[in-house]
């Protein structure tokens, strides 16, 4: 594998047999390495270069090519289609980088990621050029880490990880900058490139979403919210227990799912536990309450749950 590529965005991926869908945007150079790392993945590529797909390095690879300028033409893929979009340095060259980042997010699954990178405007080399009266990247958006972090969170990403690519000054220039008052927390002045992994969901939510299908999760949240607001409770309780059996939803998952999706937790738990006891699902109710006691931290909900446990114990 090419050493130059290996230290890039591929560090966010692990070799395996997962059938991921991966899109590269003006990052086709990663495709051979991606095929080697993830042989079962479906590979897609967007590029402005009409001759890119004919290069020898892509021969024998099954790649879905799309020739367009991502900055001017909307991508024509299904919503939440990709597990990963790899867009090396692409936000730097966009007229409105937040629009591009937000647009990418619509094509990424809830459990997926945007992998990108950007030149650190605070790198000592750029600062030295500006001190000498030069600023060469006139046609690019330049970012510092806090600015990129703010942009990605405003573009519907929930968790962002930064990895530095450092290039140290050959003399004491960095030390001179800090002496002049430049902040150099975590060697920011020595970081030439920031590699970025931006997730559509927080790790906790992504774990929940990876357990069951989109249809099952959508039906579960619909039934829980109907029960939460007492909408046709008998009918929806029957549908709820049918889904629990058909999908094999276990109590720990259900407790975490309810914590993340509901507003009125205690009353919904009482309804489910009462229903479980009524239909002979006592063990499921016990396990659900145990799981709930472990995943909630708010005092009012915990007090209500403890009261529910005491009522069932005495009953």
Number of H/I helices:
13
The CATH architecture term of the largest domain is 3-Layer(aba) Sandwich
Order of helices and strands: HEHEEEHEHHEHEHHHHHHH
**Coarse shape:** elongated
Q: How many DSSP-defined strands?
A: 7
Helical content class:
40-55%
Record the strand order, biggest sheet: 3-2-1-4-5-7-6
What value does the average pLDDT take?
Answer: 91
Radius of gyration, taken over Cα atoms and rounded to an integer in Å: 25 Å
CATH class descriptor of the largest domain: Alpha Beta
- Low-pLDDT windows of residues: 1-6
- At the third CATH level, what is the topology name of the largest domain? Rossmann fold
In brief, what are we looking at here?
The protein is 44% helix and 16% strand. The protein has 13 helices and 7 strands. It has helices spanning 3-6, 31-37, 97-106, 124-131, 145-154, 173-179, 203-211, 214-228, 233-247, 251-261, 265-278, 282-295, 299-314; strands at 21-25, 42-47, 63-67, 82-87, 108-119, 159-166, 191-199.
What would your notes on this structure say?
This protein has 315 residues and is α/β, with parallel strands linked by helices. The protein has 2 domains: 3-206, Rossmann fold, CATH 3.40.50.150; 212-314. The chain is built from 13 helices and 7 strands. The protein has helices spanning 3-6, 31-37, 97-106, 124-131, 145-154, 173-179, 203-211, 214-228, 233-247, 251-261, 265-278, 282-295, 299-314; strands at residues 21-25, 42-47, 63-67, 82-87, 108-119, 159-166, 191-199. Strands 3-2-1-4-5-7-6 form a 7-stranded mixed beta sheet, with helices on both faces. β4, α3 (97-106) and β5 form a beta-alpha-beta unit. The longest helix has 16 residues, at 299-314. The protein is elongated, with a radius of gyration of 25 Å. It starts with a helix and ends with a helix. The model is unreliable at 1-6 (pLDDT under 50).
């Amino acid at each position: 594998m090419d050493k130059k590529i290996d230290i890039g965005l591929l560090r966010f991926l692990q070799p395996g047999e997962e059938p991921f869908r991966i899109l590269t945007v003006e990052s086709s150079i990663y495709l051979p390495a991606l095929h080697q790392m993830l042989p079962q993945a479906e590979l897609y590529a967007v590029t402005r270069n009409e001759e890119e797909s004919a290069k020898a390095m892509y021969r024998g690879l099954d790649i879905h090519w799309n020739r367009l300028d991502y900055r001017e033409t909307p991508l024509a893929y299904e919503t939440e289609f990709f597990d990963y979009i790899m867009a090396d340095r692409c936000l730097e060259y966009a007229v409105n980088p937040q629009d591009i980042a937000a647009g990418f997010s619509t094509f990424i699954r809830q459990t997926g990621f945007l992998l990108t990178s950007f030149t650190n405007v605070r790198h000592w080399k750029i600062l030295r050029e500006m001190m000498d009266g030069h600023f060469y990247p006139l046609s690019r958006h330049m970012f510092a880490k806090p600015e990129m972090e703010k942009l990605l969170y405003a573009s519907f990403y929930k968790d962002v990880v930064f990895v530095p690519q450092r290039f140290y000054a050959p003399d004491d220039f960095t030390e001179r900058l800090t002496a002049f008052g430049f902040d150099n927390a975590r060697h920011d002045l020595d970081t030439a490139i920031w590699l970025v992994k931006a997730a559509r969901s927080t790790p906790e939510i992504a774990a929940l979403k990876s357990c069951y299908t989109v249809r099952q999760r959508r039906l579960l949240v619909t039934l829980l919210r109907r029960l939460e607001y007492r909408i046709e409770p008998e009918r929806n309780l029957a549908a709820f227990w049918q889904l629990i059996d058909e999908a094999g939803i276990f109590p720990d998952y259900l407790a975490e799912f309810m914590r993340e999706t509901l507003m009125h937790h205690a009353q919904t738990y009482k309804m489910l536990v009462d229903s479980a006891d009524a239909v002979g699902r006592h063990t499921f109710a016990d396990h659900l309450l145990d799981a709930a006691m472990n995943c909630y931290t708010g005092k009012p909900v915990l007090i209500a749950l403890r009261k529910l446990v005491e009522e069932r114990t005495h009953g």
